[in-house]
Input
Amino acid sequence: MEWWRTAVFYEIYVRSFQDTNGDGIGDLSGIIQRLDYLNDGTPDSLGVDALWLTPINPSPMFDFGYDVSDYRAVDPLFGSLAEFDRLIAAAHRRNIRIILDLVPNHTSHLHPWFQASRRSRNDPQRDWYVWRDPKPDGGPPNNWVSTFGGPAWTRDPTTGQYYLHSFLAEQPDLNYRNPAVVEAMEDVIRFWLDRGVDGFRVDVIHKMVKDAALRDNPHPAPDEEHPVRHYGGLKHVYDEDQPEVHDVIRSWRRILDHYGERMMVGEVYLFDPRRVALYHGNGRDELPLAFNLSFMWSPWDAAAFRAQVDGIEATLPRGAQPTYVLSSHDAPRHRTRFDEPQWGAARARLAALMLLTLRGTPFLYYGEEIGMRDVLVPPERVCDPVGKRFPAVGRDPERTPMQWSAAHGAGFTTAHETWLPIGPDFATLNVEQHARDPHSLLSFYRRLIWNRKQSAALGHGRYRPLDGPPDTFIYLRESEEQRLLIALNFGGERRRVALGGLSAGRIEVSTDPGRLGDLTPSDFALGPVEGVIVRF
Ligand code: GLC
Output
């Protein structure tokens, strides 16, 4: 079985993981320093199998690395190519795989390709980006809007034409209808595969190809004041998810397969799981994995989680498998999203138990294993371009430095200032303190992940949901070798779970440390916000 089917991935927001040169910003050598924490081969470490690093390429950082100015180098803020080679070697020695963030839809406006492209209408690289004349009234060529608010077009004074940008004006979109662009990005992919990376997380992959005629999207009332309603209020018929994007992805898959077991996980940011499923092609010829971000938008509700899981299971083609994500660098942390005075901590455990026992590839976000929360960032320290424009939905709060210890700088840095503030609770909420406590959330994550590695049913078993009492989500994971029942109680009431035809078993893992042991023959009780793994 391919390694990425059973792997637990861990997203590292590189700027915030570990600083080693005292500039208040994380770096590659910081990641090397923390590899043993991530997986030293023993259950005393977290045990993750693969790291996804947010963009490390040189960038003017208008969108914190998602605006690349050189695809074949490392930004000096983070280190160098030599440092990167050291990271790959050190990770591989521990059986940890590394995947990079590939940002193919757009470059930085400072990338030499765009610098050439904007120089004149006749430049050989003009057509590497999407340029159009203004409308007769001087306005933008069509009604498309940027994901970050405002029109998706900016007029460039040098030639008087507009260029397309799905995000910031500093992130011009490449033109994948030009074969030279397709080839250039394939060379980038080979460059990193040759350096030993195990794969890529591909940024907004569904956006790479646009309608050839750049037709207007159907236009209900846009809301200029709210980025989500503004962008989400439009029907995105022509500015993303075009059939030709699948040709590009198929050719990338051929490259991956040529290198052996390398992978890609695509950020297919579409709300309809049936559209996302298409990015797996026939299950073998397009994306190995696509992000399923539904848990990031889900309320705390057992039926809602089950509906999302059943929906994904029903839509994927044979051979494809789901992914699950609770938190990322683009959305509030789930410890905060699902918080509640009485049950907040219990919910974080229950969510982890679900994430790590479903059929699919889980992606953790750094800090979730200690229950890090969103941090309030004062207006004068806001960095995220989205946060500057729309304070209510800024992404800085979930990107703050990892809380390693109670030391000055939270063990993240020796600097006096960090690029984003450190969470005010770091003295009591940090890795060092969690590592000492066998009942901590970190200890629970470790147990779950190491348990998962040894479990045939969790590794490759089928998923079968069972009906249960209100507020519960109950499912079986079954393989030839092993049968497990996972029972999750999302509500604050005690619930009895009938075992039905199943013979009684043993609670192997519970969110309540006192609950391990044999079950009574016919049923068992779940405490409020409790979850268990039962082996039969
Ligand atoms: C993706 C990234 C996000 C970035 C955007 C533009 O959604 O996850 O952080 O701002 O693409 O590249």
Residues 179-194 form the longest helix (16 residues).
